[in-house]
Design brief:
881 residues; mainly beta; 14-stranded mixed beta sheet; 30% strand
Length: 881
Amino acid sequence: MRDSPAVNRSKLICIVLFVAAALRHAPPAGAAVQAVPTFHSLGLYWSDSGGSATMPCEVRYRRAGTSEWRAGYPLWFDGRSGVGAGTDAERPANEYRGSLVSLEPGTRYEVELSLRGTDKRATLTATTWSESFPIAKTVTLPATSKDTLVITESGSPGGYVLYTGAAGARAAIDVAGAQPYDIQVKAAYVILRGLTLKHAGRDGIRLEDGSHDIVIEECDISGWGRIDSDAGAGGKGSELWGMYGDAGIYSNSKTVERVIIQRNRIHDPRTDTNNWSERREKYNTFHPRGPEGIYLIDTAGHLVIRYNEIGGDLDHMFNDVVAGDNNFSFRGFPNRDSDIYGNRLSHAWDDGIEAEGGNCNVRIWGNYITRCYTGVATAATSIGPIYIFRNVYDLSAKSEAPNDTVEHGPFAKLGDNYPRFGGGRRYFFHNTLLQPSPPPGSTRTQGAGGGLSGGTSERPIVDVVSRNNLWHLHRADRTAYSSGHPATRDNDIDYDLTNGGPPRLFGPTNRFGPHMIQGTPQYLPGNGAASGDGGKYALAPTSPGFDAGEVLPNFNDGFTGKAPDIGAHEAGTPLLQFGVNAHRPRPIHRSTHTYKQVGGLEIKADVHRLDDREVRPVVVWIHGGALIMGSRARIDRYLQQLVDDGVVVVSIDYRLAPETKLPAIIEDIEDVFKWIRARGPELFQADPKRIGVWGGSAGGYLTLTTGFRVQPRPQVLVSFYGYGDLIGDWYSQPSPHARHRTIQMSEADVRAEVSGPPLANASDRKRNGGAFYQFSRRQGSWPREVTGWDPRREAEKFNPFMPIKNVSAQFPPTMLLHGTADTDVPYEQSVMMAAELKKHGVPHEFITLQGGEHGFGGADPNQIEAAHQAAIAFTKKHLGM
């Protein structure tokens, strides 16, 4: 922080992570209700509500065309007048502002805002930025160049100008310090992709006035910057202190906006930065001065900085890693409606991220920050709100002094230039401070020394909301919350975990809630500081803070336990990802195999796995369809998540009823496991000792059947709305439910559609068998149709095929998931199965979805997501992952 401002595939459509041209522009500034999109977020504004600070503004949203609403986090009411008055950042008085996060790109959403306790409503629709856009022209750059690339040709909303290397190659520009920039952009609708930029005399890429709608991606930028005239004067003799503000990517233009900086490596500037113990006599300061990674001053905002790796080493330190200037203002960096996420940031003597100025609907999440003095700086936040959530902060130090004596900085530097600048709302949710083990010769850990800090008495902390953060400090005698300024006020802190001492916040109106947790976190094996930037920070079930957080709509949806975990990583959810390969679709290999042949009928399985040769555990997916319908054709996003997490998913066909009867169907199920164990290691690197099974509806029944029919038994079973009984009244008596009366055909016609030869894929029928299934449910004849046996007179014949009759202590660990309003497979089927598992001491979990129909429709979407994540966690646990 500084206290003063510083002086195609190219056919027509090319996929990159960016925004469709029609969606780039914000709504008109005068609109009373606005939604401003980025890829994953919407900034919301409501200025004519007639509300007040005591009247919460509730938010709900849904994908357009769907019926399920989801809750958003309430908007903040800003009752100040004159915020930004006289500037282009001015906001109306009495305005509600806030954000929706974790949205899908390129998706249209309906949003409803409402004032609690009134009938006041506002509705709007908005579409998040798409991740595809048109290319009008491609400029192929030479393999090497020694001259600055000056870009003056603009594209348009209908087509961008792409600058890149030849197909399959990178283009390199190395000006060897002889020219100030590798690239100078004086145009709009431009993409810079896959370029290697070296040794710029000042800035690697410079964005000038008139530059907007710019994408910078997949570039490697290094060696930039000027040597300051006092270099070498700091006591070491060899210090190449750099000029303050020279950057890998730089702009000092107020017209620059809608800039996407993604998947770049920006590293090792030419020069270095002084640390806080090295005085710069030239400037009469100990404050760090030197190069920056990204430095964007006073832009118009609408920035997305994601999935970059920006760092150096102890001889190439940054002043800040990602920053701007004009911090005490209503603009600053990143100004407004901007996102910074998924980055790996390191090696700064000041801030990892310096987000200071207006901070109007700014979101900073999912970043890994290490070897910086401060993680995220927000002094000041003049407009707000800013959301800082699920970031991970690792190593912290103020200088190169020994670890036990050096000052360790805070995660967040706060404070306002009271009373002129500041007063905007800040939210801190689910951030984690790591504490790596002491280095040799030290006794103290190496992480942060504070959580939220406003310094001693220089600036107050105002209007902070802190929830579910893990403030693990390197010294227990320090505090997670500190500001000595008497104007510190209106901060609301609760549900945080810290090992530190009592808060040190001056001022009479600060609230510390009753759910604060005192203690030291305990992590699952391989998680926490041991993971480094590996993305594993889940708490152990025995840890303080496990299942102890507050529910924050839209910010911790899908938590897997009875309540959210404290910290950045919810146990049982996917790893956090940082850097250039974060959330990049991993190459998936799909292959189709015939695992069995009966006469001329080939019975097939699709294998989905990461495209590598590593031996991996297997989950067999068994589709539903009442044993009559369905096929192996698709896997849902949760099975895809298992694939992304390193599981081989084998989606199988099996012979279908009534053409084939139940004993032969079960034989197919038994045979596919024999095939996986015999051929899987060779064909798709399956681990035959780690096999799980998932299935839904009839697939859930077959999943449970593998628990006693397949030998060796699988390691884990997950049954979604499955059943263990085949002859109860629910199946052997006429169904009263409307769902079984949507297709009306004669008995002759429905039997005709299933009168052909044996088949293992319903698409091989002229009709898929749905009419026959409904007919059998209306008649109460399903058990007889699929087996050939009468359930009343020949009940004993069903027993060898009914899970409810075959549970023993050897049954595999099992998870059951079922909705209470299921009219196809009664909820009681899973209740009965859970009772049998409990009776025999089988490890199991039973997740109930209140109000859920067959397939969980009608249940709370948050609960549905949490249930699926719990199933993934249960599966991975029992597969030894």
